[in-house]
Amino acid sequence: MAVRACGLIIYRRLQSAPSSKVTDGIEYLLLQTSYGTHHWTPPKGHVDPGEDDLQTAFRETQEEAGLQASQLTLIEGYKKELHYPVCGKPKTVIYWLAEVKDCNTEIKLSEEHQAFQWLKLEDACKFAEYEDMQATLKEVHQFLCSKE
């Protein structure tokens, strides 16, 4: 059976000059794992028994980044399912999109991660070395641009 994980792609909007496009001020939160290859990823984790997928995404975000559900706005209309093998076993990861209500909210990492960064799309794609994650970040950015 496939391993199932859920998470949130979290972004913030920086207060920018009125002349610039709003999407230029968007930054994405990536966490660097403290295990394995120290890859960069949005907060995510395995579904616990009795939990639904979205509950998992919010719980993992709170555990890994210290962000409470009340500090986030879930963005309607975006949900992405990724499928890839991990250690030879199939894995499914479902992501939703959420914006931090206050762009200065403090990030508090768990021991699962050693660093975090808020990154503009281009840099976020460099840090997220997996192609499917890069494609997902670009898709999210397009989605946000189309909403304006």
TrEMBL record:
<dbReference type="GO" id="GO:0006167">
    <property type="term" value="P:AMP biosynthetic process"/>
</dbReference>
<dbReference type="InterPro" id="IPR020084">
    <property type="entry name" value="NUDIX_hydrolase_CS"/>
</dbReference>
<dbReference type="GO" id="GO:0004081">
    <property type="term" value="F:bis(5'-nucleosyl)-tetraphosphatase (asymmetrical) activity"/>
</dbReference>
<keyword id="KW-0547">Nucleotide-binding</keyword>
<dbReference type="InterPro" id="IPR000086">
    <property type="entry name" value="NUDIX_hydrolase_dom"/>
</dbReference>
<dbReference type="InterPro" id="IPR015797">
    <property type="entry name" value="NUDIX_hydrolase-like_dom_sf"/>
</dbReference>
<keyword id="KW-0378">Hydrolase</keyword>
<dbReference type="GO" id="GO:0006754">
    <property type="term" value="P:ATP biosynthetic process"/>
</dbReference>
<dbReference type="InterPro" id="IPR051325">
    <property type="entry name" value="Nudix_hydrolase_domain"/>
</dbReference>
<feature type="domain" description="Nudix hydrolase">
    <location>
        <begin position="1"/>
        <end position="141"/>
    </location>
</feature>
<dbReference type="GO" id="GO:0000166">
    <property type="term" value="F:nucleotide binding"/>
</dbReference>
<dbReference type="InterPro" id="IPR003565">
    <property type="entry name" value="Tetra_PHTase"/>
</dbReference>
<protein>
    <recommendedName>
        <fullName>Bis(5'-nucleosyl)-tetraphosphatase [asymmetrical]</fullName>
        <ecNumber>3.6.1.17</ecNumber>
    </recommendedName>
</protein>
<comment type="function">
    <text>Catalyzes the asymmetric hydrolysis of diadenosine 5',5'''-P1,P4-tetraphosphate (Ap4A) to yield AMP and ATP. Exhibits decapping activity towards FAD-capped RNAs and dpCoA-capped RNAs in vitro.</text>
</comment>
<comment type="similarity">
    <text>Belongs to the Nudix hydrolase family.</text>
</comment>
<dbReference type="Pfam" id="PF00293">
    <property type="entry name" value="NUDIX"/>
</dbReference>
